[in-house]
Amino acid sequence: MTQKFDVVVIGAGPGGYVAAIKAAQLGLKTACIEKYQDGEGKLALGGTCLNVGCIPSKALLDSSWKFHEAQDGFAIHGINHAGVTIDVPAMIGRKSNIVKNLTGGVAGLFKSNGVTVLQGHGKLLAGKKVEVTGPNGVEIVEADNVILASGSRPIDIPPAPVDQKIIVDSTGALEFQQVPKRLGVIGAGVIGLELGSVWSRLGSEVTVLEALDTFLMAADTAVSKEALKTFTKQGLDIKLGARVTGSEVQGEEVLVKYTDANGEQTITFDKLIVAVGRRPVTTDLLASDSGVDIDERGFIYVDDYCTTSVPGVYAIGDVVRGLMLAHKASEEGIMVVERIKGHKAVMNYDLIPSVIYTHPEIAWVGKTEQTLKAEGVEVNVGSFPFAASGRAMAANDTGGFVKVIADAKTDRVLGVHVIGPSAAELVQQGAIAMEFGTSAEDLGMMVFSHPTLSEALHEAALAVNGGAIHIANRKKR
Predict the structure, then answer these.
(1) Does residue 77 carry a catalytic annotation?
(2) What does the pLDDT look like over 376-435, one tens digit per residue?
(3) Could you report how far apart the first and last alpha carbons of the chain are, in Å?
(4) Does the pLDDT at position 100 exceed 70?
(5) pLDDT (0 to 100) of residue 116
(6) Among 9, 112, 237, 271, whose Cα sits 20 to 30 Å from the Cα of 315?
(7) CA dist., res. 61 & res. 39, Å (int)
């Protein structure tokens, strides 16, 4: 007998599993389809984020930063040490245990909320039927509502075919068992910078090849300039305008060819990471008669509420327009389920924070100064350096700054941009303030505890209107 559900979710990543849990909590009979298996051949929930993305990369970033601090940052605190070493397999093992605990946690949440797990590949058929091809063959399930949440995978490029041995993608870069002496990274985006930072801290000579002439184009110009200066000082050799044209694996190393302003160049690495972005996983997701429309790049067409061209079929996360971020996918999943239940849920796409978990962290929410100026919006800007923060000084972590951008006419905060310690947390405070239409004056009038890094946000907001206390103001009120 064919199983029938109120909601069937294809994909158990941050968008899919959150949607499935929320649907079950709202009393909907829910199933979630997932095919991904871990290294032991067992079903692993959580998608790219928990298994080979957000979580494992942050584990390695944290471990590698602790090693870097032990080597170069403890002496100033009066902590004397010698002979610090890194056990890479142990570091990788810790990362894998964290992943195992979190993916197991999702399985536990599914069980406690009554979500049915269907192992296999899900494919949407006509009439909101879903074909599940799994270990026990093919099964057809029916649903009143279907949520497509199949996620994304790394983009492959012909000049550097991935073999997961010498040339790897972001997944392979999480499994190195020793520190490569010479590491190449193609792409200076979020993934490339984070992975390059991990292995640079552990001793790799890292070269980043970025095809664009502009560094971190999506970030505020002041932030991107500071980031480039900082990463270069840390030892990352970032080559802008360097377009990779070919590669050749020669034994245990790879010869990479690229062109830049000086013409054709070659460089040799022991490992090469391809991190040029991600593409939606929609191959074999939709039957030809499913009725769901996709564009030429494989993204599913949806409206502001993630509704596809077929009533009752929705798509969320990396398979639709917008930022490819786990938190965006999760909130879309919740919005969709709330609307299925008849609630008037909406999502504010203008206030989705972006974070790069390097050190210093880089984060922003809202619009950049260059974007606002291009739109003809007059703005006032306030910034505050962590070098003037007592808490940052106490932690010996004073690089970077907080920048607040406000409308010159209304004083409403339009953007918060941070490079420095705890940037991700500080930007979230800005996002909360902006969600409620806060002005820079409002933010400046709030009481911030002392001493905290958050005071940098407070001072930057005060600086918008010339009222900062702990730096010289550019203008007087």
Answers:
(1) no
(2) 999 999 999 999 999 999 999 999 999 999 999 999 999 999 999 999 999 999 999 999
(3) 75
(4) yes
(5) 98
(6) 112
(7) 22
